[in-house]
Design a protein that fits this description.
The protein is mainly beta. It contains 1 helix and 18 strands. Strands 3, 4, 6, 7, 9, 10, 12, 15, 16, 17 and 18 form an 11-stranded mixed β-sheet that branches. It has a 7-stranded mixed β-sheet with strand order 2-1-5-8-11-13-14, with no helix packed on it.
Amino acid sequence: MSLRATARIAAGADGSLPVLESDGPLALRRTRAVAPGWSRVTVVGAMSAPLGGDRLAIETEVRDGARLRVDSAAATLALPGRDPAPAAYDLRLRVGAEASLRWLPEQLVSAHGSHLRVRTAVELASTARLVLREEQVLGRHGEPPGTLVSRLTVRRAGRPLLDQELAYGPGAPGGWDGGAVLAGHRATGQLLVVEPAYGEEPPAARPLGEHAVLTPLAGPAALVTAVAPDALALRRILDAALAELAPE
């Protein structure tokens, strides 16, 4: 039987978490913050999910002046299920005035035979700050990937900042594994940093090693996109970018 579950988080400027609601396989735990003045929530998977047909969501509100880090205890593993319908995983994030959100989950692994659609929708106030990392691993060791479609939309002060969709695996548009996209790599990811100070001094566009690039966005924001042979190599690339663009 397919699951329907929505977990909810709200962070206050005083460091409180007035809303922390787990649901189904999405168990939320308040954990020790890594920096003063921040709240931290860790997502702990309570069961295998998402499977075919599951509908999972996390809704997060970072209220005016609040600072919140959200991470996860382990990778998310998309698996095939009895239901042939695609699974859906929706992330709905709102960040208020002078508030900060660092969204830093572990990797999403697309197992062979799975079909998952991920949708991340972010609404930012004009003075909000955001660090958002996405990492996808296409297939477990020695297996081909499942089908993975990932859509990321970000609006700042009501205006579009970023809207992109990526698709990999069986059924994805042709060329996803070609030289212009993954070129045989099986790990891919991105780091988005929205920082109001970039309005005056945006980072310059440049390659970050052989398989990553930094691109400034109008908004103001910077996007790092990377591919790698495995999850460990991908994390090293994105960690280096994170330390440069948004150190804690």
